[in-house]
Amino acid sequence: MQTNDLINALRADAAKQAMPLGYSWWIAIVAATIIAAGAFFILIGPRPDFTVAAHTPRFLFKFIVTLALVVVAFALLRVLSRPGSDVRHVAYWLVLMPILLGTAVAAELFAVPSDQLVTVWWGSNVYVCLTFIPLIGLGALAVFLAALRHGAPTRPRLAGAVAGLLAGGIAATFYAAHCTDDSPLFVATWYSIAIAGLVALGAICGRRVARW
Fold it and tell me: Does the keyword Aminoacyl-tRNA synthetase apply (predicted)?
C-alpha cells in the first residue's frame, strides 16, 4: 500500500462515526424484548384465563414489580457502561422493588389465613418458574452483554450482574403472563430466585465479556 493510500484509509476510518452508546442501548432493549417474547410464546405462552386474570389486582401487581425492575435496571446498566459514571443516584432506586414486595407480602400475611400461607407461598408452579424465567431471559442477557462490549464498563462483573438483572426483569414480566400463582409471597420468593440465577450468570460472563 502506498503512503497516500494509507493516509486516505486512515482518514476514512476517522470519518466513520461509531453508533452512539445511548442509541445502541435502545436497540439492545428492543432486541432483547423481542427475543424474550419469542422464547415465551414458543416455550409456554400466556395462561388460559389471561383476560380474566388481567382484571385482578394481584395479577396486575406482578407486572408493576417486574416492569419497575426493568426500568431501574436498564437505567443502571446504561450508567455502568460508561467509565467513571456515578451509579449511586440510579442504584438507590433498586430499593423500590423490595419496598413494593415487602408491602404486598405484609398485606398478604394479614389477608390469607395462617394455615394457607405455606400453600400460597409454594404455589403450583415453582419448578416451572425456576426453569422458564432463566430460559426466557438467556437470549436477552446475551444481547445486553454484547451491548456492554460497545461501551467501556470499569466494573465488568457488576455490569454483567445488572445485565442479568435486566434480562431477568424482562423474562419475569413475560413469565408473569403465564404464571397462575399470583401471591406476592410466591413472587417475592421464587421470581427473585429465578432472576438471581441470571444475575449470577451475568456476573460470571460480564467479567470475561465486558472487560476492556
Answer: no
